[in-house]
């Protein structure tokens, strides 16, 4: 589904991603871990098409199409979803209207007619139930005045509504209370299927107990320096990143 | 940021939707401003002697007054002698029934979305359609007449209700208020007149649609609205003009009078031709609007959505004379291309327990310059006066500007005056967030701007809120900052 080859990217001339290779197949869940500032959110941003990032080398294939060639909205309509580490507030824009617009934009792209009000509301209700999402948040302005956790849950709710092929969740767990973490994880598990895939960025092995990944990768200094299965997350939890840094320093050419 | 550049470029080049010109035979006075032309206008309208005298006095004042110097933009030289002060479609000066209205005129208004024919009239909205210097039609007149409501062109009111006109004309905006008000009082053409009798709640929106069509003319209309005790009226004004390379002057005066326990809601959706991307052409919109809450417990509410004009210069205000009276001002002003807006309000608290509320939302894009200028004045007898002002500016791109000049003068220490102000840029983060959900730049900016302006748009009558939203999108289509 997603094939990242030797991806390099820079912000304002600073190299941030330095040769990422990653292959995500339909039905898989990949976890990405790594120290602060290692480039996890940057990878998510580059995949979603944030303008500030300049891709300097490499390629990304998304279901047979050149992802890097598409505008951010086309990537979204093609089925790439990013749950943001910091979802933004958009005052005065009703959450529900926004969501309806988003759903219909994606539909239009695939040649489907806009959803009728009734059908949309039915879908809204069923997804609210699925994700145990607070219906009151629907009638407010988009993320305006939402608590940190509510914003995260709103993003995940949007994900449930948009039914993306590939969902990237950037530290969705940070800011969620214990119950919310369980509820959101359960929701994500319900959304898992053989035709979609997830990339889950997290610092904590705890989330991965709920959403069990097929692969775990460690991103360090703009590169994936280690990949493994869910046991790797446990190992990291126990030992931190220092032992990996030691290994890498030995490999890295002196500049 | 090349994408941003592209979008801003496109935005700057947006076409003005209502720029067409109606081909119709016109009766146009020769350019020039003098006593003769004033006598000519007055005679054309068969006005009584007192009104001619009043006009001539206005002209004298105009000659004495000088141009203001306090505004936050370069006041362009206006050649008052180069303008024609009277332009009316030939044949009929006064239409007795719609059948007599030139089909070309009906077609013009239909094209503007204002059908005047009986069978197509907007439901729930009575319209007075003004074409250059003349009111061409007023709809729903008979229904309104049954309730004792007078809704007609200003010219007609002078003929049919001279006592009301005489009593209130110039009572809120004195002729000497400012040079443009003086000019208007000398040469005003047509406009609307509204009287709502005691205890009557006007059952439909009253609306005037102004269209400047003729070349090299100005539009100088006057509107006078009187709400008698315990009455209510909601009034809406809309306007457009053809695209022309030269600037045209629009200098209107609006006076509102609210007696005891009455309420007037006045909404404006202003969409005069704004000029092109280089600032060529466009309307100079120099307007004086003021209301007086004369009676106790009365209320006047101004809502304006200003999207057009090369320069907009206006401060709809309220004189809060009656005890417990309320004044409100809700404004969205958009400046794009090379547009300039210097707008705001004046709330003058005179009576006890008077309240005012000011919500101003400025939006600037491209090279647009947007100034909020507001005065809250509390007199010595205005015990417990309250004001709340919220004044927000939104910037799109980094070549535009937003400026705020709030003035407060309080002579009563029981008064409470609150002022809040914010300036923000349309965040790239916000646009990206919407992009990431499949929404393109154009629609993203649209959503953000409409969300930002929501508090004001919510004040508009339903039918027009949708219209206003569309206008905002057209004016700002697709800019990212
Ligand atoms: N606009 C920018 N200008 C300069 N450096 C930037 C910019 N944006 C990101 N960076 C840098 O890129 C590096 C990677 O940041 P990124 O947000 O991807 O880290 P992360 O792995 O997601 O960290 P965290 O775990 O703290 O969320 C950091 O060193 C950050 O400071
Ligand atoms: Mg991050």
TrEMBL record, chain A:
Pfam families: ABC_tran. PROSITE patterns: ABC_TRANSPORTER_2. Keywords: ATP-binding, Nucleotide-binding. Residues 2-246 form the ABC transporter domain. It comes from the Bacteria. Belongs to the ABC transporter superfamily. Ycf16 family. This is Fe-S cluster assembly ATPase SufC.
Automatic annotation (TrEMBL), chain B:
Transmembrane segments: none annotated. It comes from the Bacteria. Residues 210-451 form the SUF system FeS cluster assembly SufBD core domain. Residues 137-202 form the SUF system FeS cluster assembly SufBD N-terminal domain. Belongs to the iron-sulfur cluster assembly SufBD family. NCBIfam families: PRK11814.1 (NF008773), sufB (TIGR01980). This is Fe-S cluster assembly protein SufB. It comes from Chitinophaga chungangae. The gene is sufB.
């Amino acid at each position: 589904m997603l094939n990242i080859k030797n991806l390099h990217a820079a912000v304002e001339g600073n190299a941030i991603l330095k040769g990422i290779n990653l292959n995500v197949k339909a039905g898989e869940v990949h976890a990405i871990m790594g120290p602060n500032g290692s480039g996890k959110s940057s990878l998510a941003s580059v995949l979603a098409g944030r303008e500030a990032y300049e891709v300097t080398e490499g390629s990304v294939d998304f279901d047979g199409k050149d992802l890097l060639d598409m505008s951010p909205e086309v990537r979204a309509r093609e089925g790439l979803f990013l749950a943001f580490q910091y979802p933004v507030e958009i005052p005065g824009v009703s959450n529900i209207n926004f969501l309806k617009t988003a759903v219909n934009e994606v539909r239009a792209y695939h040649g489907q007619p806009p959803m009728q009000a009734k059908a949309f509301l039915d879908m809204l209700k069923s997804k609210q139930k699925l994700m145990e999402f607070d219906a009151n948040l629907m009638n407010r302005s988009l993320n305006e005045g939402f608590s940190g956790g509510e914003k995260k849950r709103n993003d995940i709710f949007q994900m449930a509504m948009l039914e993306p092929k590939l969902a990237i969740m950037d530290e969705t767990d940070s800011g969620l209370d214990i119950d919310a973490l369980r509820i959101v994880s359960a929701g994500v598990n319900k959304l898992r299927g053989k035709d979609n895939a997830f990339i889950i960025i997290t610092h904590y092995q705890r989330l991965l107990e709920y959403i069990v990944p097929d692969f775990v990768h460690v991103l360090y200094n703009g590169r994936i320096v280690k990949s493994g299965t869910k046991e790797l997350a446990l190992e990291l939890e126990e030992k931190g990143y220092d032992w990996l840094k030691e290994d890498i320093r030995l490999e890295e050419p002196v500049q | 940021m090349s994408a941003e550049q592209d979008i801003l470029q496109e935005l700057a080049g947006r076409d003005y939707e209502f720029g067409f010109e109606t081909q119709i035979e016109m009766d146009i006075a020769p350019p020039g401003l003098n006593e003769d032309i004033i006598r000519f206008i007055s005679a054309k309208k068969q006005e009584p002697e007192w009104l001619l005298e009043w006009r001539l006095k206005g002209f004298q004042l105009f000659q004495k007054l000088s141009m203001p110097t306090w505004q936050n933009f370069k006041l362009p030289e206006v050649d008052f002698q180069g303008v024609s002060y009277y332009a009316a479609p030939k044949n009929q000066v006064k239409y007795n029934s719609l059948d007599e209205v030139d089909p070309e005129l009906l077609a013009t208004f239909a094209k503007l979305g204002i059908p005047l024919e009986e069978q197509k009239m907007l439901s729930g909205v009575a319209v007075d359609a003004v074409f250059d210097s003349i009111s061409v039609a007023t709809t729903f007149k008979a229904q309104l007449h049954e309730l004792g409501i007078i809704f007609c062109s200003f010219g007609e009111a002078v003929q049919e209700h001279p006592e009301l006109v005489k009593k209130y004309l110039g009572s809120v905006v004195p002729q000497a208020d400012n040079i443009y008000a003086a000019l208007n009082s000398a040469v005003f053409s047509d406009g609307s007149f509204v009287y709502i009798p005691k205890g009557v709640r006007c059952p439909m929106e009253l609306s005037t649609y102004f269209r400047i069509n003729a070349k090299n003319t100005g539009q100088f209309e006057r509107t006078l609205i009187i709400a008698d005790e315990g009455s209510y009226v909601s009034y809406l004004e809309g306007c457009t003009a053809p695209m022309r390379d030269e600037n045209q002057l629009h200098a209107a005066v609006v006076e509102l009078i609210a007696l005891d326990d009455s309420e007037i809601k006045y909404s404006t959706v202003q969409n005069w031709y704004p000029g092109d991307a280089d600032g060529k052409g466009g309307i100079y919109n120099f307007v004086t609007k003021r209301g007086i809450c004369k009676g106790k417990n009365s209320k006047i509410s101004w809502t304006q959505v200003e999207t057009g004009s090369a320069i907009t210069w206006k401060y709809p205000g309220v004189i809060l004379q009656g005890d417990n009276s309320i004044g409100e001002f809700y404004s969205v002003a958009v400046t794009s291309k090379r547009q300039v807006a210097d707008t705001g309000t004046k709330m003058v608290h005179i009576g006890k327990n008077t309240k005012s509320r000011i919500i101003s939302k400025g939006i600037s894009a491209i090279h647009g310059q947007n100034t909020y200028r507001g005065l809250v004045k509390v007199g010595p007898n205005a015990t417990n006066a309250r004001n709340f002002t919220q004044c927000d500016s939104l910037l799109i791109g980094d070549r535009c500007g937003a400026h705020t000049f709030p003035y407060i003068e309080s002579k009563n220490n029981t008064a409470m005056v609150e002022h809040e102000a914010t300036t923000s840029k349309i965040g790239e983060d916000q646009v990206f967030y919407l992009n990431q959900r499949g929404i393109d730049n154009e629609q993203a900016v649209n959503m953000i701007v409409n969300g930002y302006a929501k508090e004001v748009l919510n004040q508009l009558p339903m039918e027009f809120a949708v219209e206003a939203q569309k206008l905002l999108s057209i004016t700002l289509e697709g800019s990212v900052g």
